[in-house]
Design a protein that fits this description.
The protein is 76% helix and 2% strand. The chain has helices at residues 6-32, 38-45, 49-77, 79-99, 103-131, 134-166, 179-185, 188-198, 205-210, 214-225, 227-239, 263-277, 280-293, 298-322, 328-352, 367-382, 385-395, 402-430, 432-454; strands at 172-174, 177-178, 354-355, 361-362. The protein is globular, with a radius of gyration of 22 Å.
């Protein structure tokens, strides 16, 4: 066999990681595109706050199911195979969401897209973790979050541009269709690219070993790491599996000595849930609604989303340089503290706001402070919990239970995401912005305690050395 050079290894690993992160881009775009379509959905489907909340959050039901079953099915059919299925679903969902003529039809296509997002959310970081060397695994997995935020950012830019061209998101744009429908159809371009690019990457070598296909795994590992390292890694992976070499199953999450769910599974669930309880996706999904609620025009609110997306990308780039140097735990801890403080400032601003004749909040001289705090909050999240939670979930579980661990953590993450997103319009009309953001601030403070007490460091550890 020809020995693969270190440079060739690095370039190949980078290439296949970038292909996997297109799934992250679509995850972000599909999640963020809804932000600019809320007015269009209300006008087209005559929905009120609870109905609008469900139209916006319906995708998240699919995400929860997609994340759970992708984690389980990937242990049977492979990581790459599940990503291919997700790519097809992205294509169908993007087209269908734009042509929908009623809430039921729209919800169907959004749930289909949710299945794709859920699968991509757990499979892309898992795939990258399973092909990348430990020394820069965190950085490559963080690229997934950069891709997610870039997808969000491009959705915001696209929404802003299309709405401006039409005049309003509800106005007709091209070929007799409203601008909000074109916001969904733009996603077809990256979705098709993802499907084609996936045909050029190999299956995860760790999945191949788990499936008993050691020769195939060895061929991939030699291509990734070279002859000697590839041969050695096959044996290390094999030795890290269950003694009887049974196929991974959900029951592996139960400790056979105590009969209880393994602690590592609870930590994964905790990381997944807290990432959503801090309320970040309220900013992503309802950013336009939030800023319009405090006196911004639709155009100003959509522009604020674009600025928020740019700040998010900058924060993720900071994390790229830090995650493999200072580790995962410090980033999570300080991110939680930063979010608790910035959310607290936003609550203060909302409490000080006046109201106009229609009862809408008017921030007045607190507007700059509120916007600055919101952007600082977005920065804190995206340099910590945004990327690092996915890094941790992709690498913290032992090989035997990675698929099952990702399944339950992904289900918990998306179920919490759905709960937070669905309830926000009701909280907005019930306890107001200050009350809603107060809940998110308290969750951020509790998440700091959770990290300090329960989360352990995984920086620099090989996947075969993960305990659980």
């Amino acid at each position: 066999m020809n020995t693969v050079t270190e440079q060739d290894n690095t370039l190949f690993i980078a290439f296949i990681s970038i292909v996997a992160t297109i799934g992250g881009f679509l995850f972000g775009f599909d999640s963020g595109v809804i932000n600019g379509t809320v007015d269009g959905l209300q006008a087209a489907f005559n929905s009120e706050s609870i109905g609008t909340g469900f139209n916006v959050s319906s995708m998240l039901l699919g995400c929860a199911v997609g994340a759970f079953f992708a984690g389980r099915l990937a242990d049977k059919y492979g990581r790459r195979t599940l990503l291919l299925v997700a790519a097809v679903f992205f294509i169908v969902s993007a087209w269908g969401s734009g042509i929908a003529t009623g809430s039921a039809e729209f919800v169907f296509y959004r749930i289909l897209g949710g299945l794709a997002v859920g699968a991509a959310s757990v499979m892309a970081p898992a795939y990258i973790s399973e092909v990348a060397p430990a020394r820069y695994r965190g950085m490559l997995t963080t690229v997934q979050q950069v891709a997610i935020i870039t997808g969000l950012f491009m959705a915001f830019v696209s929404n802003y541009a299309l709405a401006n061209m039409a005049g309003l998101s509800t106005a007709e744009l091209w070929m007799g269709f409203e601008a909000w429908r074109w916001m969904f159809w733009i996603e077809l371009f990256p979705a098709v690219l993802f499907l084609v690019a996936l045909l050029f990457i190999p299956e995860s070598p760790r999945f191949l070993v788990v499936s008993g296909r050691k020769d195939d795994a060895k061929a991939v590992l030699i291509r990734l790491y070279g002859d000697s390292a590839g041969n050695r890694k096959v044996e290390e992976i094999d030795q890290s599996l269950a003694g009887d070499h049974h196929q991974p199953r959900l029951s592996d999450l139960i400790d056979k000595v105590t009969g209880k769910i393994r602690t590592i599974a609870w930590i994964g669930i905790g990381l997944a849930v807290f990432q959503q309880l801090v309320g970040i996706n309220v900013v992503f999904y309802y950013g336009a609604v939030l800023w319009q609620a405090v006196g911004y025009t639709e155009s100003e609110a959509l522009l604020t989303n674009v600025i928020s997306g740019a700040v998010s990308i900058a924060a993720c780039i900071v994390t790229l340089g830090l995650v493999d140097k200072i580790g995962r735990k410090p980033l999570l801890k300080w991110g939680s503290i930063g979010m608790a403080i910035t959310l607290g400032i936003m609550v203060y601003c909302f409490l000080q706001a006046g109201t106009d004749v229609n009862g809408n909040l008017m921030l007045g001289d607190k507007g700059t402070l509120a916007l600055g705090s919101a952007l600082a909050y977005v920065f804190c999240f995206n340099m910590s919990w945004g990327p690092v939670m996915w890094v941790m979930l992709g690498e913290m579980f032992p090989n035997q239970i990675r698929g099952s661990g990702l399944a339950i953590a992904g289900l918990a993450q998306w179920a919490t995401n759905f709960l937070i997103t669905w309830t926000f319009p009701m909280l907005l009309t019930g306890i107001g912005l200050a009350g809603a953001y107060g809940l998110y601030a308290i969750s951020a403070a509790i998440s700091a305690v959770f990290v300090i007490k329960f989360v352990y460091e995984t920086k620099g550890k090989e996947l075969e050395d993960m305990q659980g």
